[in-house]
Design goal:
homodimer; binds adenosine-5'-triphosphate; globular; alpha/beta; binds magnesium ion; 42% helix
């Protein structure tokens, strides 16, 4: 069983890319082989693992719209992590998908994943901040969903809309889709706002909120500028330890299924 | 001359909504009548000014796709600020726009703005975090663009892509489109990262970067949970003073044109 995990939230700047990249490395350090898809046209996940964007490497866009056998992924500097990098043509992907017609436009990624013979134990998808066709393709192709939620008021606002969309998908296009959980990010426990958001989330969503809190730490926002994951940038800091704890908690939740 | 200002950045969580709402109130306090369009399906601008989302008020979605005369806007609790609130059907807007055909799909908003007889001196558009059809409609309908840029590395990555898109639009669909400038947000001057981003931005973009810096302050992230702008929440704090300075700087730049 190879979990395919969508890391999504249409709210912007909540830590989707930071979670995708550091959770990928957390898994890799546990000896799991990980395949990371960067499906955000900005290509933040690609550069956060030190891979050049917009090069001739086969991109996530090529994989998504491949007519024949999909191309191979690109290795990264990290053992056990391969990537399909973002490419500038991903900007036009949603329009290209909408022209495939009702049936195909949300299942192009799933179709090509089925054709792809790979040895990875985990597939992670980094999504753009929207509920458009790219994110819908990811959700239709995934087995699980991890939702980063920033400890801010505005980040709570769109959450019920997102969770409803997941329910609709489960009833329709993708019956196997499970919510792995919500992970609270950029938590600053010195502020009332963070404490209120954590309390609200745990009261309303209970066990769907992961125990692990990701603290706000400047090291997490510095590491991408060096093209490094947090484990490579500050191996034993609070950021790396939080993503290590997140990795362990997700592995436990998957084992308990 | 009524400036129509697009507040855009496809990078998520950089302060688009916070800037749209507080700049709107900054203008209103200077006696200018402002019309705010919330074109992000999340509806953060709508709730940040204390207006109920997803009600029967004529929404920005209705305005965008109106076949006859567009409906009137909704007043807010603030003198001089009216709004077209976001509505849940905005989620489907991009697909609806794509079905209007090549010619109309990016000019629907501009067309309806021309039909609309209003007394507002400024129109502000809050955009979702993408360069899809909603944002393109905003850019085609606007006279100016204000780009909030968070003082973070990942926020710099997508900026050149965005500025290129603006150049292409100016050569094509909208010759009058001017870059008002980039405004640096969530600046924490105690960190090297913020100082590096500010230095990079000023070196590379020079006068396109506004002088005004918006500091990171918890009050700016608390005010939306009370449905208040920063001027209403903490009138003389650092957040309100920064947005007051931003308002004055933008008015100066417009006067110098
Ligand atoms: N725990 C953290 N502490 C401090 N900074 C963080 C943390 N997590 C993420 N960041 C920073 O916050 C910003 C937003 O995070 P990130 O880009 O991962 O969010 P995102 O949800 O992927 O954004 P987008 O919606 O644009 O895809 C980035 O500059 C990132 O470096
Ligand atoms: N100067 C600031 N200081 C502290 N917090 C801020 C500041 N500006 C914005 N915020 C908070 O940061 C988060 C992101 O800001 P905001 O929602 O305005 O960005 P956005 O670009 O509109 O996001 P999206 O891409 O989702 O539309 C919000 O929770 C907001 O309250
Ligand atoms: Mg991202
Ligand atoms: Mg916003």
């Amino acid at each position: 069983h190879q979990p395919r995990i969508a890391i999504i939230n249409q709210k912007g700047g909540v830590g989707k890319t930071t979670t995708a990249v550091n959770f990928a490395h957390g898994l890799a350090l546990q000896g799991r082989k990980v395949l990371l898809f960067d499906l955000d046209p900005q290509g933040n996940a690609t550069s956060s693992v030190g891979v050049e964007k917009y090069t001739t490497n086969p991109s996530s866009h090529e994989f998504l719209l491949a007519k024949d056998d999909p191309p191979p992924p690109t290795p990264t500097a990290y053992e056990n992590i391969d990537i399909y990098p973002a490419n500038i043509s991903l900007i036009g992907a949603e329009l290209e998908l909408s022209r495939l017609g009702e049936e195909q436009m949300t299942s192009a990624l799933r179709k090509n994943l089925k054709k792809f013979n790979h040895t990875h134990e985990f597939i992670l998808f980094d999504a753009p901040p929207s509920l458009g066709l790219l994110t819908l393709n990811i959700l239709v192709a995934s087995s699980h969903v991890l939702v980063p939620v920033q400890c801010e008021y505005l980040a709570l606002e769109g959450l019920s809309m997102l969770l409803e969309t997941l329910d609709q998908l489960r009833d329709g296009h993708n019956q196997e889709l499970k919510l792995l959980g919500c992970v609270l990010t950029m938590a600053d426990l010195r502020t009332n706002l963070t404490q209120e958001v954590i309390r609200d989330m745990r009261q309303n969503l209970g066990p769907s909120v992961l125990e692990t809190l990701i603290p706000r730490t400047i090291r997490l926002s510095e590491s991408p500028s060096h093209g490094k994951t947090i484990f490579d940038y500050e191996r034993w800091g609070v950021g790396a330890r939080a993503y290590e704890a997140l990795t362990r908690e997700v592995l436990r939740r998957l084992a308990d299924e």
